[in-house]
Amino acid sequence: MNLTPAMERYILHWGEMGSRWGVNRSVAQVHALLYLADRPLSADEIVETLGIARSNVSTSLKELQSWDLISMTHAMGERRDFFEAKSDLWDILLTVVDGRKKREIDPTLSMMRRAVLDARDEKNTPSVARERMEDMLEFVESMNDWYGQVSRLPKPVLIKLMKMGAKVGKLVKKK
User: What's the predicted TM-score (pTM) here?
Assistant: First the structure.
């Protein structure tokens, strides 16, 4: 696959941003390439286009599949596997957020619930520390509940909500 200079800049920058978001640079670059591609690509095409090691591409493809950001396809008469990225931006966003929630927020909530229960049972836990842990748990649970509700909204509603921006505050009565 031939890349234009703009495509190269996009892929390189996506790789840099991936590292800032805690994603391996190669994984982010492979995702960017597949997102920009007008057809599914084989691992060999990805290796050739990005100039990264085959083992790195294989690892990246497995990680992207585990995040459900890409899928494997086949072509008639071909023995090779081909890969394509989701192209719907809302689907990508919700897939990433849901994956991060499962990997980061859910385990944190479990730990926080245990810590709050332990702090209530331990007589030597200072009341300020216990109260702050309880406040944090309540906050994270509220955010988690909010995400659960918002993520179930139909895409057209999400788009309208986003476009409303700060106007949504006018619809909500202040206490």
Answer: 0.83
